[in-house]
UniProtKB/TrEMBL annotation:
PROSITE patterns: SHIKIMATE_KINASE. Monomer. It is found in: Cytoplasm. Pathway: Metabolic intermediate biosynthesis; chorismate biosynthesis; chorismate from D-erythrose 4-phosphate and phosphoenolpyruvate: step 5/7. The lineage of its organism: Bacteria, Bacillati, Actinomycetota, Actinomycetes, Micrococcales. SUPFAM superfamilies: P-loop containing nucleoside triphosphate hydrolases. CDD domains: SK. This is Shikimate kinase. Its cofactor is Mg(2+). ATP binds at G14, A15, G16, K17, S18, T19, R124.
Length: 176
């Protein structure tokens, strides 16, 4: 059987993907991988610079490639960038991963809980301008896709990263 992640975490900015991925990887004794970091490493520059220098379309192409590579070469916890699930190729790759027994977790969060986590800083190019309004627009657009690609959903509001990781671990045990 080909290598595939133990679990894939998806969700909007501020849901806790990167933090939960680190906690869950320690809990399960596996490596963590973040596709945003893969994109930056492959491009040799931060995501915000990719958006400025090359545009969002170029970033999304790099992101599709990073997710596809990680889904076939990483056997630990995989955290996806917030918008990665919006590309059809990535949705198909996640569907294939799920059909092979993979677990895609939608880490859901409300704006009131995402705001303090994200800080709505300049490193998030899609949230420039009115970041709270932009986050809500993005979430309204993405929610149906997050729900469609995931086979497990957890609301992270008011939960510690440890509590979220424990819930995911329990779901992995249930599926085993």
């Amino acid at each position: 059987m080909a290598t595939q992640p133990l679990v894939v975490l998806a969700g909007p900015p501020g849901a806790g993907k990167s933090t939960v991925a680190k906690v869950l990887s320690r809990l399960k004794g596996v490596q963590v991988r973040d596709t945003d970091q893969d994109v930056e490493a492959n491009a040799g520059k931060p995501i915000s610079d990719i958006f400025i220098d090359d545009g969002e379309a170029a970033f999304r192409e790099l992101e599709v490639a990073a997710v596809a590579a990680a889904l076939t070469s990483h056997d630990g916890v995989l955290a996806l960038g917030g918008g990665a699930i919006m590309r059809e190729e990535t949705q198909e790759n996640l569907a294939r991963y799920r059909s092979q027994g993979g677990l895609v977790v939608f880490l859901d969060v409300t704006l009131s809980h995402a705001a303090p986590r994200v800080g709505f800083n300049q490193a998030r190019p899609l949230l420039l301008g009115n970041p709270r309004a932009q986050w809500k627009i993005l979430m309204d657009q993405r929610r149906p896709t997050y729900e469609a690609v995931a086979n497990f959903q957890i609301l992270t509001d008011g939960k510690s990263p440890q509590e979220v990781a424990q819930a995911i671990s329990a779901e992995l045990a249930r599926l085993a």
